[in-house]
Structure formats: structure tokens, C-alpha cells
Amino acid sequence: MSLEEGVETAAHFGSVESEYKALVDGVGVVVRDWSDHLRVCGEDRKTFLNGKVTCELEGLEPGGGAYGFLLDAKGHIQADTAIRVLEDAIWLELPAGRGPRVGEHLSRFIVIDRVEIESLTGLMPLTLAGPRARPLLTALSESVSLPESPWQVRRSVVGEAGEVLVSADGRWGVPALTLWPSVTQAEELVGHLLEVGQGFGARLVGYQAVDRVRIEAGIPWFGQDFGEANLPQETGQDEAVSYTKGCYLGQEVVARLHYRGQVSKVLCGLTLDVDEVPKPGAALGLEGRQAGTLTSSTRSARLGSVVGMAILQRRAAELGTRLEVEGGGSAEVVRLPLAGS
Predict the structure, then answer these.
(1) Burial, 77: exposed, middle or buried (Cβ in 10 Å; 0-12, 13-18, 19+)?
(2) Cα separation, 107 vs 115, whole angstroms
(3) E strands, the chain, in order
(4) Fewest 10 Å CB contacts: which of 67, 205, 239, 268?
(5) pLDDT above 90 for 336
(6) What single DSSP character describes residue 123?
(7) Domain map (residue ranges) of the chain
(8) Which of 80, 110, 84, 115 is nearest to 95 (CA)?
């Protein structure tokens, strides 16, 4: 299937329902070939990046990490990013196809900073997602050392693959650990994970099942639920923004909204009373006027209903508000997360 910027990835590997069950009850093995990655190195890398992202980096030691936004001068989101601090570099994980654009965006601000920005190539992240992800990795090696909290990273010996970087990841809706082998190692390691993981309910999982679980958990994705037209506070992702750190690009707008007012629209969860799952882009109305647009939707087996997310005007964002759905049916504004954790 095609994602943003022409990025291609596997939608599924035969049965979305079986893959969904692996994520919820066992462990899904996800070949994460859709995300982009940048490597930032140089003596000034941490100070430089700390002035370009909304999260706090200064206190992070090698092995630490954070989740944040990259903004323009007007406070609009250019991308969200998982940041991982290593001994000699900082890695930025970015939405599909955003690597070149973010690289150019950051490079414009390099003046006298001792910083180099390059595409991170040669690696293929393999994510184990589900409640049995950690037990499966532990079973691979007696000496395995796993990170405990998002977005920590550790170097660990993982079975026959030898020493591999392992990161603990958030924003999946289920527990998730990612291995970072080389591209040449990845295929063999996937086979090994599936073989050892038979007793853990392991299954190769495609994009559609991952998407369903993250919608249930109320986790918005850049390019789907928010984008360059949005401000950080509109997404509801409080973990991504520090209001106590020093100056960063776009901070003035973010701080003004935080301390003096509020945004006019905000991300909300929905339960939908509809015959068919509406597609993203469907208009949501209140009292005869459009109040927002559906951004994500899925039929949730765990909740027994259709659920989704939308960026809604404040007048429509109160919990319990009933909205008309374009094409028929209704939606109720509910608290996030919808299901999971």
C-alpha cells in the first residue's frame, strides 16, 4: 500500500484480523520500512537540536530519548519525531517521506554550529509489538538487556544476530520494543523471531493492523490526524511539549497559547453509530454547520463499535457532544484513549 510521499509498505500478510489479534494478545513482528530516519552528529548536536524541537533534550544522556515536534517560526508542526540519544549521534525517527524535508529544514539553521545532518541508512527497524514482546526478546538470550521506558535505547546481544541496538517505543497502543539490525541481517532475524516466537503468539504484521490498534488507543499520526496546518496544542500530545525549557523555534506561539489562551480546535476521540466505517475526510456537523473532519476510523473488535478521531472546533469538542456524520449516522465525542493503553 502507498503512504505519504509515495512510500510503499505491506498492508497485511494474509489476515488483518489474525495480525490484530497478535498485537493485542501476543506479539506482532513489524518490518518498519515506512518511517524515515536522520542522523545528527557533531559536537553541538544536542544544543542545536534542543533549539529546534519542542521536547527537552539537554538532560538526556546516551541511552535516553524523547518524543517531540519540529515547528516552523509560526508554531506550525513540520513533523513529529522520536529522538534517540546515542554515544556519538542523535537519531531522529520521522513520518514516512519526511526525512529529506526535515533535513533541509534543519540545515537552514546551521550557521556556526558544529553539526552534520545525514540520512540514516543501512538499518531496518524491526518492532515487536504486543504484551508478549518483552518475554519473547528475553527468551532469545540470557544476556539480553532491554530498555525499560520510551524512548530509551540499549545495546544488547539478541540471539544469533549478535549485538543489536534495542529501543523501547511509545505511541503504539501496546508495549513495543524495536531492534535495529542492518538491512542485510533483517530478513534472517525476522525468520528467527517468528520461529522462537511461536510459543508467544508471534506473527508477521502489516500496516493495517498496526493502524487499527493505534486508532483504538487514540494515538494520532502526522499526515493522517494532524499536519503542517496544526499547532502542537491542537493534537493533545502533551508529552511532546516542554513549557519550561529554553528557547526553540516556534516557542513564542506555543507559549502564548499555553499561558494566555487556548486553541480554537482540538483532537477528539469518537464513537460512531454508522452502518459502514466512514473514510477519513468525512465532514462532521453540529446544528447544521460543519464542526470538523474525521481523520481516522476503524471498527474496533475490543469495543464492539466503530471508533475514530477528529480535529473538532471547540464548540463541538465537549465530551458527550453528538455530531452528524457525512453520508449518514452519528458520532459521540469521547475521552481518549478509546481502548488499550
Answers:
(1) buried
(2) 9
(3) 27-31, 36-41, 65-71, 77-85, 90-94, 116-119, 126-129, 153-157, 163-169, 176-180, 202-204, 265-273, 283-286, 289-300, 305-313, 322-325, 330-334
(4) 239
(5) no
(6) B
(7) 4-32+124-216, 34-121+231-262, 264-341
(8) 80
**Arch. (CATH architecture) of 34-121+231-262:** 2-Layer Sandwich (3.30)
Instruction: Give which of 176, 169, 177, 172 is closest to 213, Cα–Cα.
Output: 172
Instruction: Please identify which residue in the block is written with the cell numbers 477528529.
Output: 310
pLDDT exceeds cutoff 60 at 239: yes
Question: CATH homologous superfamily for 264-341?
Answer: Aminomethyltransferase beta-barrel domains (2.40.30.110)
Report pLDDT digits (tens) over 48-101: 999 999 999 999 999 999 999 999 999 999 999 999 999 999 999 999 999 999
Say how far apart CA 280 and CA 276 lie, in whole Å. Answer: 12
Q: Which residues contact 255 (CB under 8 A, 6 or more apart)?
A: 243
Q: Could you tell me which residues are beta bridge partners of residue 284?
A: 292, 325
Report the percent of the chain where pLDDT is more than 90: 85
4-32+124-216 and 34-121+231-262 agree in CATH topology: no
189-211 pLDDT, tens digit per residue, is 999 999 999 999 999 999 999 99
For residue 262, give the amino acid letter: Q
